[in-house]
Prior knowledge:
By secondary structure, the protein is an all-alpha fold. It has a domain at 2-80. The chain has 2 helices and no strands. It has helices at residues 2-110, 120-135. Helix 1 (2-110) packs antiparallel against helix 2. The radius of gyration is 50 Å and the shape is rod-shaped.
Amino acid sequence: MSIEFSRKRKSQVARLRGDLEELRDDNKILFEDCEQLRRERDEWKQRRDLAIERAEKFEVEIKVLRTQLDDLKRFAYDDAPTLAAKAADTQTAELRAEVTHLRQELQNIANAPYANFEDAEEFRTWARNRARHAIGQKPKLIFEKP
Length: 146
């Protein structure tokens, strides 16, 4: 009986050693999986922290832009009458300059020596072309008949 007992014992010990070796292998695999999960967790934490950091930066930029927008609105509303007055003054000055130019041109036409022209039609064509040129239209050729 002792030989049989010893064989049973040896087979049990061998089976237990095999089970222990299997458990060690499983433990290594689980440890590697755990390490992989830790690395992934750390990566996700970094991504989250970067997203939070960017969101905070965007919030600051939005506050700055809102402040600038409010300042621009205030500037636009406060200075709108002044800007309109300046634009009106500029436009008035331009119109006065144009009226002065057109009056001078009319004066030139009115004071043109009629004796320099062969007939009334040539004078009329010259005067019309001069007036058209003054108001910015394309002048007709003197040789064309109206």
